[in-house]
Amino acid sequence: MSNPLDSLRDQITTIDSELLELLARRRGLTNNVAETKIQHHIPVRDQKREEQLLIRLIKQGKAVGLDAHYVTQLFHVILEDSVLNQQALLAERANPGSTLPINRVAFLGDKGSYSYLATQKYFSRRPGEIVEMGCQSFNEIVQKVENGEADYAVLPIENTSSGSINEVYDQLQHTHLSIIGELTHPIRHALLVAKPLQISEIKTLYAHPQVFAQCSHFLAELGNVEVKTCDSTSAAMISVSESGRDDVAAIGSEAGGALYGLSAIKSNLANQKENHSRFIVVARNAVTVPLQVPAKTTLVMSTVQTPGALVDALLVLKDNSINMSKLESRPITGNPWEEMFYIDVEGNIQDGPMQNALDELKKITRSLKVLGCYPSEEISPTRVAAVNALNE
């Protein structure tokens, strides 16, 4: 007897295939848009145009029975994809000769780690095949790029739940590599097991120390469970997969766990439900960021040991209308009680205000170094007031 749902599912499958073809056609047209923007020096984003587009789509959606939230969320994803693809194309054009047929990328852990997933996400928009180079420490990652074994490194630098990853900042203090890109990746921790079991049956739990910090509330509820730290989330998953035991678990992503035959028995373990990690991409050579593309610049500096020296440096940014998005301090190795300051700002070093600020900072700081100017991949969604969308 045939399943009464088969006919409906066949129709849905056909529509899904048509949607994919339409999305591919739309993406192709946005690449043509990028080419036009290159020729005429037009900025990648036009948020007024995006707002008008969303208002029109919300009204059209309402007419065919689709609610505004559904339409808005769907097209936020589509618009973000369009912006990121255009930025990648402009960056490729601005750096002739930088495109490689093979991208050797070093990252923390093995297949399935969050760094592995971030690497796949970042390079999916770049031409060339990826050669994955899993490493067991941040120092090993940096060394592979410095000595030419790898072309790029992907490094986690901060998390919305556990904060800055200080060891990475310490690596940046001593390397000659340049930051050439960034991305933010959602971190969704799940409890992963090799065979179905109850949480109360778990005797040993494996995870990276940062993961334990991000899931401390969940750990507090577990009770008498042995906690074992690993160099990466992939190492934790491998430990469970190879243990042969029915009473062990790991914390990691469901996608990563699936690569090792693990399944999730509990999800959303992080203290903060909106949990994201920011990653940077580093290489031996700096990149040129087209002025049409929103850019970030990361600086490292040390100030003179006088009252108000840091304030004076930050006022230089304010006076040049440069927005600072992050300030991080780290000790200077070998100089007790002295610190280096890492600063992320929104700006392109080719811009007049940024050049003025750098010139002024060089005069009032003990040392100043640009760690990288790179395209910003934090694509803020265009907001549309519901009243506007329904009344215009």
TrEMBL record:
An example Pfam family from this entry, by short name, is PDT
Record PROSITE patterns: ACT (PS51671), CHORISMATE_MUT_2 (PS51168), PREPHENATE_DEHYDR_2 (PS00858), PREPHENATE_DEHYDR_3 (PS51171)
Location of the protein in the cell: Cytoplasm
InterPro entries linked to this entry: ACT-like_dom_sf (IPR045865), ACT_dom (IPR002912), Chor_mutase/pphenate_deHydtase (IPR008242), Chorismate_II_sf (IPR036263), CM_dom_sf (IPR036979), CM_II_prokaryot (IPR002701), CM_P_1 (IPR010952), Preph_deHydtase (IPR001086)
* Residue span(s) of domain Prephenate dehydratase: 104-284
Question: Where does the chain bind substrate?
Answer: R9, R26, K37, D46, E50, S82, Q86
Limits of the ACT domain: 298-375
The alphabetical list of record keywords is: Amino-acid biosynthesis, Aromatic amino acid biosynthesis, Cytoplasm, Isomerase, Lyase, Multifunctional enzyme, Phenylalanine biosynthesis
Reaction(s) catalyzed by this protein?
Answer: chorismate = prephenate; prephenate + H(+) = 3-phenylpyruvate + CO2 + H2O
Task: State any single GO MF term.
Answer: prephenate dehydratase activity
| EC number(s) per entry | 4.2.1.51, 5.4.99.5
Its domain of life? Bacteria
Domain Chorismate mutase as annotated: residue spans: 1-90
Swiss-Prot/TrEMBL GO biological process terms: chorismate metabolic process; L-phenylalanine biosynthetic process
Keyword Aminoacyl-tRNA synthetase: yes or no? Answer: no
- Listed GO cellular component terms? cytoplasm
Protein role: Catalyzes the Claisen rearrangement of chorismate to prephenate and the decarboxylation/dehydration of prephenate to phenylpyruvate.
* Protein name per Swiss-Prot or TrEMBL: Bifunctional chorismate mutase/prephenate dehydratase
